[in-house]
Write a structure and sequence with these properties.
about 230 residues; mainly alpha; 6 helices
Length: about 230
C-alpha cells in the first residue's frame, strides 16, 4: 500500500471516529431538549420566550442539525466521496459560525433579550381569563416555582383588576391577597442556570469535536484529490 493510501486510510478512520462522537453528541443534545420539553409540558401554552421553553427548542434544533451533520460526515468518510465531504465541511462551517454568532449575541444583548422576552410574556398575560390553555400554564408555572407574575406580582393587577390569581398563593388559600414575592421569569431563569452547566460543558466538548471534524474533513478531501490525481 502506498504512503498516500495509508495516510488516506488513517485520516478516514479518524474522521469517522470524530463524526461518530459528533453524532452521539447530537443525540445527547436532542435528548436533553426532549427531556426539557417534557419537563415543561405543563406550561407549553406560554410564549416561547419563557426561558426554559426557549432553551428546550434551541437544544432540539441544535441536536437535530448535529445528528444530521454527523451522519453526513460518517457517510462521506466511509464512501470517500469528495462531494459529501465538501458538503459536510460547508454545513459544519456554517454551523460553527452560527453557534459563535449566537453565543456573542446572547452575551452582548442578554439584557435586551430578557427585556423583550418579559414584554412578550406580559402581553400574553392579557388573555389569561379568555384562554384556558394559557391560564393552566400560568397556574402550573406559579405553583411549580412558587412565584407570581413575570417581573413582579403587580403584573397581574392590570389583568385581574387589582387582584391575584389563586396560583400565586399556597394551595388551599381561598382568596389570594399577598402572593409569592419572587417573579416567575427570574425563578425560571435561575432554575435553567442551575440545571444547564453540565449541558454547557457537553456543548463545549462538541465544539472541540466540530473543529477537529472540520480539519479532518478538509485533510481527507485533499488526500482523495491527491490520490485521484496520482491514479490519473
Amino acid at each position: 500500500m502506498s504512503v498516500s493510501r495509508r495516510c488516506l486510510c488513517c485520516v478516514k478512520y479518524l474522521m469517522f471516529v470524530f463524526n461518530l462522537i459528533f453524532w452521539l453528541g447530537g443525540c445527547g443534545l436532542f435528548g436533553v431538549g426532549v427531556w426539557l420539553s417534557f419537563t415543561q409540558a405543563e406550561f407549553s401554552s406560554l410564549p416561547l420566550s419563557f426561558p426554559s421553553l426557549s432553551a428546550a427548542n434551541l437544544l432540539l434544533v441544535a441536536g437535530g442539525i448535529t445528528m444530521v451533520t454527523g451522519f453526513l460526515g460518517c457517510l462521506g468518510a466511509l464512501k470517500e466521496q469528495r462531494c459529501l465531504l465538501f458538503m459536510f465541511f460547508l454545513i459544519l462551517l456554517l454551523l460553527v459560525l452560527t453557534e459563535l454568532a449566537l453565543v456573542l449575541v446572547i452575551h452582548i444583548c442578554h439584557d435586551k433579550l430578557d427585556s423583550k422576552a418579559q414584554g412578550q410574556l406580559k402581553e400574553g398575560m392579557k388573555i389569561y381569563k379568555s384562554d384556558p390553555g394559557l391560564k393552566k400554564s400560568w397556574d402550573n408555572v406559579q405553583k411549580m416555582f412558587k412565584c407570581c407574575g413575570v417581573t413582579n406580582k403587580t403584573d397581574w393587577y392590570d389583568v385581574l383588576n387589582g387582584t391575584l390569581p389563586s396560583s400565586c398563593c399556597p394551595v388551599g388559600t381561598d382568596q389570594c391577597v399577598d402572593g409569592w414575592s419572587e417573579p416567575c421569569y427570574q425563578k425560571a431563569r435561575q432554575w435553567l442556570l442551575d440545571n444547564i452547566p453540565s449541558v454547557l460543558v457537553f456543548g463545549g466538548c462538541i465544539g472541540v469535536v466540530q473543529i477537529l471534524a472540520l480539519v479532518f474533513s478538509m485533510l481527507m478531501y485533499c488526500q482523495i484529490l491527491c490520490a485521484e490525481k496520482y491514479l490519473d
